[in-house]
Amino acid sequence: MVKYTEVMIRYGELSTKGKNRKDFIGRLAGNVTRVLNDFPEIEIHPRHDRMHIVLNDAPFEEIDKRLKKVFGIQTYSPAIKVPKTLEDIEKTSLELMQATFKDGMTFKVNTKRSDHQFEYDTNQINNMVGDYLFDRMDNLKAEMKHPDLVLRIEVRQDAVYISNQLLHGIGGMPVGTAGKAVMMLSGGIDSPVASYLAMKRGVEIEMVHFFSPPYTTEKALAKAKELTGILANFCGKINFIAVPFAEIQETIKEKIPEGYLMTVQRRFMLQLADRIREQRGGLAIFNGESVGQVASQTLESMVAINDVTTTPVIRPVATMDKTEIIERAEEIGTFDLSIQPFEDCCTIFAPPRPKTKPKLDKAREYEDRLDAEGLIERAMAGINITPIYPNQTFLDDKAQEDADLL
Ligand code: ATP
Ligand code: MG
Question: Which residues form the THUMP domain (predicted)?
Answer without folding.
Answer: 61-166
